[in-house]
Prior knowledge:
Helices cover 42% and strands 19% of the residues. The chain has 163 residues and is α+β, with helices and mostly antiparallel strands.
Amino acid sequence: SCKWIFTSHRECTMDDVMVALSREVTTECNVITLKFEPLIIHMCCVNIECSKALMKVAVGCGFRNSGLSIGKKIILAVRSTQGLEVPIGRNGVVLVEEKYLKFLIDEANAKMKLNFERIKVLEVALISELANLTNVQVTEKEKIQPLYRKEKNKQSQSSKEFG
């Protein structure tokens, strides 16, 4: 059970990462990993017709790893392939040179910038498509499907955020 030593929802600097590595790295985790994860959205769709239309929008906006899960509910997962996950150390010791670490941070920041650009494009496209879908016929059974939002773990809310 490893812990996050630095998380962010914005671009980060070499200083951000070096400070986190210098004060928090312990032998608690076997591998130290630099990781960037792009946007993931899960949407509960009222029917297959709507889910297909929204998935087409997502894929068209660059979220090519999107997909549908069809069970009791129809869930659209909007995802991209722009992730980055690179081991940079082991047993509390950073094993890569600063120059390479700077390169990885620059790559992660470039992916973050692209991620935010795609989110803006997706937002505009979804608003437009949802306006078009207001004319879709929805059955009474589909109208009464309960919607819920999973509450975030209190511990994860208290963790330091960045990026």
